[in-house]
Amino acid sequence: MTGSPLEDRPPLAIEKVRYYGEPVALVVAEEEYIAQMAALRIKVEYELLPAVLSPKEALQSNAPLVHEHLDKYKRHEEVRPEPGTNIANRVKIRKGNMEEGWNNSVHTVEIEVTLPQSDHAAMEMRCTTAQIMPGGKVILHSASQSPYVIQRAISESFQVPLHQVIVHTPLVGGSFGGKAAVQLEYLAYMASHAVGGKAVKLVNSREVDMIASPVHIGLDAKIKLGCTRDGKLTAAEFVHLFDGGAYSDRGVVMSRAGAVDCTGPYRIDNVHCDSLCVYTNHPYSTSFRGFGHPELTFAIERAMDILAKRVGMDPLEFRFANAIGPGDTSPTQTLLDRSNLGNLPMCIAKLKAWLDTDDSPQYETHGHLVKATGVCCFWKNSNTPTDAGAGAVVAFNADGTVNLLCGAVEIGQGTRTSLTQLLAERLRMDERMIHIAPEVRTETDPFYWKTVASRSTFLVGNAILRAADDAIAQLKGLAAVVLQCLPTDLDVGGGRVFLKDAPATGLAIEQLAHGYTFPNGTTIGSQVIGRGSYTMQNLTLMDPETGKGKLGPEWTVGAQAVEVEWNTKEFTYKIIRAATIVDAGKVINPLFARGQITGAMSMGLSFSSREAFFFDEKGAVRNNQIRTYKLIRFGEQPEYFVDFVETPHMEAPYGLRGIGEHGLIGMPAALANSLTAATGVELNRLPLTPETIWRTIHDPV
Amino acid sequence: MIPFDFDYYKPSSVPLAAEWFHLLQQQGKHPIYYAGGTEIVTWARTNDIHPGAVIDLKSVPECNVMEMQGDKLVIGSCVTLSALTAANPFPLLSETARGIADQTARNQITLGGNICGNIIYREAVLPLLLANSRIRIAGIEGIREASIHQVFSQKIRLEAGEFLVQIVTDRSDLSLPFVHIKKRQIGSVGYPLVTVAALKKDERIHTAYSGVCSFPFQSAAIDQVLNDTSLPLSARIDQAVGQLPAPLLSNVEGSAAFREFVLKQTMAEAVHTLERR
Amino acid sequence: MTLPPPAMYPVACEVNGEKRLVRVRAADILLSTLRDQLGLTGSKPGCENGDCGACTILVDGLPVKSCLMLTVEAEGKQLTTIEGLKNSPVQHAFVRYQAFQCGYCTPGFIMNCEGLRNAHPHADEETIRVWLESNICRCTSYEEIQHAVRDVFTPKT
After folding, report:
1. Which residues of chain B does A628 touch, with a Cβ-Cβ cutoff of 8 Å?
2. Which chain A positions have a beta carbon within 8 Å of C103's beta carbon?
3. What is the pLDDT of residues C100-151, one digit of tens each?
4. What is Dmax (Cα atoms) for chain B?
5. What is the domain class of B61-173 according to CATH?
6. N or C: chain A end with fewer CB closer than 10 Å?
């Protein structure tokens, strides 16, 4: 069995198939088309079993069980399945006193929201190769965010010593969380094993990639929110039912994320949340950019807009008034300060200024066209394992250039460039002097947990800074001997080690990089190799009853807006403008940072406006091609506005905060809020296609 | 990747193509004619069709013409949609072609291929239905000509071994006032929820539809109702929708109920626009 | 299971200015031939169904989705793949405007732009939109690509 944190998934279905698209057999052949021909000749007879097709259905008392033996599955990280039900995990938040909270509420809203499962749809399909060498060494190449997780998973599942499993990950063609899961690697190993260890390549077709490999999680949520007469939030109650599909994978951890940050970035003293990962007979879910946050944000931010309306406050002012700040506590009762929280009010103020620069009102009509703006705020904590860590090696070449070794995978986010820049900054050298390979190789690159959760610049970045400091110490130590001074008298920069007080006196790094050779040939010292590593500090697990715990080192907060032009006649709309103000802590590479934000916004707008699996009555996905599963295309992009606030996070390199996912988080909510303003009906269901909106208006059931 | 093998033939003349088809048929090869290939490749890779041989018509000179022959516009079946739109001899056809797939795909998709395809939309046929185009068809017996209405009913209906060589349209029908409206689920690329093409000829509006039912069609009954100016437009449209030749389509692109809403609007837009011309 | 060997077809074409001869199954897709036989892996499979544009190459100067073309259809044609470009203005513009992230869709976008330059050296915004909506990018917001392409088509003084 495979799966993490809960081992509930056989690589090939055993006894029963739990979702449409689940792999049932593997064929290995010398040519791809021959394998396909052979696979087509396999006739499978299925006995039709009753299926569970939504999280709500799954929780009914008479619902068929997707997994009958939930109690027997091995558990890795913290996970609480409830045997005899379809609940793979339940996370509870109990903070404050609900009775008091509701007693203090003058206004309350209660809504339900639905986000269906959808797909990551990275342009490169998931693919892997596996080869078992005669000596037992296993070599895998995989388009993955998690080479070190693959290494461990293959090692544990097939009893191969860890160091005998070697994983290579080249540049990855987009992933968005979908390539953090381990799936094809097991199959490729099994296939290679079946043919005597020959190299076997396994590539998903698009159709298979969309349904057989894990997908973007869905959510059915119910939320009740209350505030005082003057708009101060008093209480919030949440039931999050995440559609984890047929196997739990990272869905259970996402259900935890859905609880940890359930309130959004608002000060609420009384919070009650049950966040469940529920089994259904849908494709199974794994991490997706934002990791539960686009979903939870949709729920809370729809409720916030409705409550603001009740109170009679401007939606942005309502948020500003309730913005969480230093001295407040999070739903898991972490005490917040400027460093771990950032500055949301500043983000809101900047967003307000941007909205105000345009003279046009936030709601205006021209014939059958209505322009309207929707806003929202977001926050995200990383929900990483308490021991997530990274290592880095900074090795000097004889000419003074540097090789940087680390395990962060390049998936298009520019991480290996940004990490190089961090190192260059610390070594005070030109970044063109630093070489970093495009690919990650587990046998030579130091460990990195996995490239997810916008964590690479934090974890790997910290490891690199430590490695840089180590190298600097070595350079200074060696130079001090040569220059007959103390290491503390020295500084490093511009390719030299020099006396602080007399910068003209010093040595070129190339004179020291492989040890210093005196004129008589005697050499002292040796190659300068800086090493550094960093692991999450002071994180804790959650208390199972109250949820109390510290789940990540810091939040990234932000405020967003979307402006739409709604056609009241045709039920179509154009997205005119979209804005994100995010507290990035410190912007490392302005062009990349903006690209990460706008790219994530685009993905969020695509997903909330059109992306959803279309299931038939038996639970089969009917739109597993890009032809019918629509993605936003060139020409539909709105005008983007991105701005940054910089409130340093003291634990992070140069104060930076993760920003890779965050542009996406509020887009579904902001889009729904803008369309709700434009149409006058509450739009609590994604995707927001013209048909969904038409149905909400004409067919409210 | 196509999970089966087939033979490939590229005849250089109409008779050769028909003859080879006949021969391959006799050999039990289940040949099919091949033009742009976009649809055949997509069906073949998903194992939905299994031709033993394909006969590529792109080297047949007659299939590549696009010219006026006297009073008639003749378009070869292998002319691509993008070539058609660029040359623009028949503006309604150009507009319709521009709505199909995307620009790059239209460099491969041919007029004949779109009309003869298995994908249910076949939007390129709409202008031909409206313009009463004639179709030149080749078979082992030689070339025959027939009205589009004779050979296209829901889909192309040719005799075994026949292929579409050319489409012939009267000059007088090429520049009539027209409307083409395509509505999709969302975005500007993709299959239609509703495509309406309409021409105005002798003060009468002629309409044709794709995406509405599981096949493209023109309906005399619908046109009759839509032209009944004694009724207000909304009443005409309600009646017209009652005359659909088959149930409204319900699929991934949209439900029947929403299609009906979009259809009514699109019909109204088309009729309204043409009535003012 | 053994299958009779399929009939192989010789196909002669020009790839990036070089004469090439390949032997293929009739059912072989041009994209696979380029990648697997000719080692030109710049053209990417994103859907193999003509829906995403990642495999776009130029055939006789026009952009074509190589996943929807049989290799046998390439007989006598001039093919240009991303490997056939060296420092083209489009490539430079994509770099300058950071018009890619993971880069997987980029060869298709660039080849489409090259085709557009051939067909419409002074393409206007609308023509650019109609052509470029043939390609999907999942990483960028398209704004970056728009800036790059606009730069290519803006007359330089």
Report:
1. 190-191, 252-253
2. 171, 173, 412
3. 999 999 999 999 999 999 999 999 999 999 999 999 999 999 999 999 999 9
4. 61
5. alpha beta
6. C
Shortest alpha-carbon distance between residue B184 and chain A (Å): 10
Domain that holds residue C111: 85-153
Residue A436 located in a structural domain? yes
The reply to whether C13 and C79 lie within a common domain is yes
- In CATH, what number is assigned to the domain containing residue A457? 3.30.365.10
Question: Residue B37: its chain C contacts at CB < 8 A?
Answer: 68-70, 73
pLDDT for A359: 66
Write down which residue in C41, C67, C83 finishes a domain: C83
Residues of C in contact with B103 (CB under 8 A): 63, 130-131, 133-134
Mean pLDDT of A206-228: 98
Q: Is A144 within a domain?
A: yes
Question: Which of C83, C115, C145 corresponds to the end of one domain?
Answer: C83
Q: What is the pLDDT of residues A265-298, one digit of tens each?
A: 999 999 999 999 999 999 999 999 999 999 999 9
ipTM value for the complex:
0.97
Residues 6+ apart with CB under 8 A from B103: B82, C63, C130, C131, C133, C134
Q: Which residue of A has its CA nearest to C2?
A: A34
- Which whole number is the average pLDDT over B45-63? 97
Buried b (16+ CB within 10 A) or exposed e, A247-274: bbbbbbbbbbbbbbbbbbbbbbbbbbbb
Which of the following CATH numbers is that of domain B7-59: 3.30.43.10, 3.50.50.60, 3.30.1330.60, 3.40.710.10?
3.30.43.10
Please judge whether B7 and C7 are an interchain contact, meaning their C-beta atoms are less than 8 angstroms apart: yes
The nearest alpha carbon in chain B to A627 belongs to B190
Mark yes or no for CB contact A630/B187 under 8 Å. Answer: yes
B contact residues 217-256, partner A, Cβ 8 Å cutoff: 251-255
Answer whether CATH 3.40.50.980 is correct for domain B177-275. Answer: no
What per-residue confidence (pLDDT) applies to A257? 97
Domain ranges of chain B: 7-59, 61-173, 177-275
* C64 interaction partners in chain B (CB closer than 8 Å): 104, 107-108
B1 and C131 within 8 Å at the Cβ level: the answer is: no
Q: Which residues of A touch C98 (CB under 8 A)?
A: 591-592, 595
DSSP for residue A638: -
* Pick from A276, A286, A287, A289: nearest CA to A242: A276
pLDDT digits (tens, 9 = 90+) for A76-115: 888 999 999 999 999 999 999 999 999 999 999 999 999 9
Decide which of A505, A535, A565 is a domain's last residue: A535
pLDDT of residue A363: 81
Q: Mind giving me the DSSP string for A194-216?
A: HTTT--EEEE--HHHHHHTS-EE
Are the beta carbons of A691 and B255 separated by less than 8 Å?
yes
CB pairs A-B closer than 8 Å: 57
Identify the closest residue of chain A to B1 by CA–CA distance: A33
Band of the pLDDT at C1, cuts 50, 70, 90?
very low
DSSP A432: G
Kindly tell me if the per-residue pLDDT of A700 is higher than 80. Answer: no
Residue of A nearest to B255 (CA): A691
Could A625 and C98 be called an inter-chain contact, meaning their C-beta atoms sit closer than 8 Å?
A: no
Q: Which two tokens stand for residue B270?
A: 């088309």
Whether C138 and A595 lie within 8 Å, measured CB to CB:
no
What CATH number does the domain containing C40 carry?
3.10.20.30
User: Would you put residue A57 in left (φ > 0), alpha (ψ -120 to 50) or beta?
Assistant: alpha
